[in-house]
Amino acid sequence: MDRSPTYELNVRSGLSPHRRNGVILGAAVGLVGVTFGVLATTAGLSLPKALAMSLLVFTGASQFAAVGIIDAGGSPISAIGSALLLAAHNGLYGMRLSELFAHLGARRALAAHFVIDETTALTVAQDKDDTAREAFWWTGIALFIFWNLGTAVGVQLGSVIGEPEVWGLDAAFPASFVALLGPQLATRPGRVAGFVGAAIALIAVPFTPAGLPILLAALAVIPAVVVAETGRAGA
Amino acid sequence: MSWTALMVLAAGAYAFKLAGLLIGERLGDGPLRHAVQLIPPALFCGLIMLQTFETATELVVDARVVGLVVSVLATLKRVPFAGIIILSVAATAVARLIGG
Q: Is the ipTM of this complex over 0.90?
């Protein structure tokens, strides 16, 4: 997949593209981590609690949902429920990535902690298992470091910074997924999965709580598999 | 948020990830494996839509669309990864400044 932006990057710097992109994405995540720290403080979380959440939950959308609900006066139960609903789709990524880590034994327990949107995006963008694994670890560790540093900085700075949206930082994630999407859409079943997944997610938003649209989007693999099977039968 | 609530959340979020890894290994090589291979395009396209159009409970068209369009164009133009992100963030920020 030499046409993907992942491989398009030059090799002038010491890091190969799949590692470097992980660090780049980590830096963007660090900035968003700052905004998480700010919001966590606003919601009344102490530095140890905000940091514990970033260290142990390590799932951005879930953390934002949890502190958002607490800040709005919601109960801890509803905060946990909403955050877990948003975290559930990481399990689907785990199913996809499992074949890369089956040989790791007990170390899978560590790999599991890093199974999130960003690591999955950079991992499945690689065309070899070796580079995929390296992309996973580099991205996972870079994100972990930056996300937690960002959280700590955000808590310390507090309301000095203001709303993250003003800077357009929220555009960083959809942009990174767009950049990494090429290999996923290279096949017809992949394109069907992508198109139907996008449609399901959008249609579900007005009718379902946050977190459910992305889970429902996974149903798009059904028509995609049908397309793959009929394509194979016809060939 | 109490420490107990925080730990429950951490344990739950981790359990999903680990369960996925462990279940995925037992899927064999049939249609289920094929379905799992197609999860990333389905979820990434869904995520892109949600992060661009979703607010708390409804869909809106706002400055984020500008960022999405810029990211697609930059990707098609083979702009390097960091450039795609920076251009999209900048375009969204500018669109927000102009659009209010």
A: yes
